[in-house]
Amino acid sequence: MKEITVSPVTRIEGHAGVRVFLNDRGEVDSAHFQVVELRGFEKFLVGAAIEEAPRITPRICGICPSAHHLAAAKALDGIFGVEPPATGKKLRELLNIGQFVHSHALHFFMLAAPDFILGRDCPAETRNVIGLARHSPEIAKKAIAVRKFGQRLTEAVGGKPIHPTNAVPGGMSAPLTEGKRVELAAMADEALGIARDGWDIARNLLDGVDTDIGTVKTGFLGMTNHGLYSTYDGPVAMLGPDGGRLGSFSGPDYKNFIEEYSENWSYLKFARFKGGDYYRVGPLARLNIVEKMGTEHADAALAEYRERFGAVAQAPLAYHLARYIEFIASCERAVALLSDSGITGSDTRTPVKNVVNRRGVGIIEAPRGTLIHDYSVNEAGIIERCNLIVATCQNNYAIDRGVEAVARRVVENGALTDEAANRIEMIIRAYDPCISCATHAIGRMPLKIECIKRT
């Protein structure tokens, strides 16, 4: 059986490949999205004090550290039996928004846009962020400006620009100063202006593109707060492939509704609804689930989006527009929070004492989708078990099946051209997978086998 390999997949976070297997006639027999790195965080967290989890888990990834930081902190709230005060919750939400602005701007403008602005068949050596900067320097400058705002917001609220430290059990360890609020409010206004202007580019991004390519029909999962778009607080809703509500959950209840499993071609875990139905998470899922974004310009964009893709979008390329609408909403919400005088209040944390519950589950929406941190501890607060369910694992099935669907369309006479390979990569990029969050390589992991004959 002949094999075609696409490795590495470009313009994603981390390292992954695609293997396409051909039959004797040169036709696609099967194809898989493959990640063959070892994930280790769930094991080496065991034995650590639970208070260390919000400090250790942001090191999982430099792109989305805030989500891991906040999910761990929410799990600790449950273990210590505390509820953060209003100001603490607002600061946590603001910290998560900073990550959404930074991550969505990075992916949309720098990783995805080259395929559409420069062209899907543009030479690979040009079809990248450098080529985009040369072709459209103003777009590149605006992307850098909004990413800078996201980083400054993370640093001011989280304590560090990359791996934040200020989220602690019971809230946040430090308030936001008035001087920083004023500075960030001005930057938020500028970012919102850029986001609004960019919608003119985003809304037309998929014109002339076959948006049905790589479509895998699934259900969806994501957080919502009484029908409103939410990334920090609220139950997680489940949606069937045709839009029917399947239920919702919060905290430890997640195990009653979803399950993890593995396949022999990847070290990346998979997830599905209990009962066997598959689902997706992330921008596409969240916009399918919510009734409205709750902010003026994002709601207007959502109306346009639904007019094009319907109330329940299935096309993976629609992730790009959904991601941009979330980018607008994040900027609008940042403006609102930074205009709230209560955001600089000093009451940022509820004091904690002893372990109240032996298990804590923190759920938050990361830029790429629903993130679950599940910890079990002993009476002294030492972690005995840890389970992390990240967005890329939950989208793994759809990515894998989308890869095979596209491969069957673009492989001709047993050959895969560079342009055809990019069609496959585009489906993967639509999900904005974060391989660092989902798996972890420890060195090169060499394997040595010795056969010893006993006498």
Automatic annotation (TrEMBL):
The UniProt entry, under PROSITE patterns, shows: NI_HGENASE_L_1, NI_HGENASE_L_2
GO MF term (any one)? oxidoreductase activity
Q: Which residues bind Mg(2+)?
A: 42, 388, 440
Which of this chain's residues are annotated to bind Fe cation? 64, 437
- Tell me which residues bind Ni(2+): 61, 64, 434
Keywords for the protein's UniProt record, in alphabetical order: Iron, Magnesium, Metal-binding, Nickel, Oxidoreductase
Asked if the keyword Repeat belongs to this entry, the reply reads no
InterPro entries under this entry? Answer: Ni-dep_hyd_lsu, Ni-dep_hyd_lsu_Ni_BS, NiFe-Hase_large
Q: Does the keyword Nucleotidyltransferase apply?
A: no
* Cofactor or coenzyme needed: Ni(2+); Fe cation
Question: Which family, according to the similarity comment?
Answer: Belongs to the [NiFe]/[NiFeSe] hydrogenase large subunit family.
Any idea what this protein is called? Answer: Ni/Fe hydrogenase subunit alpha
Organism annotation: Methanoculleus palmolei
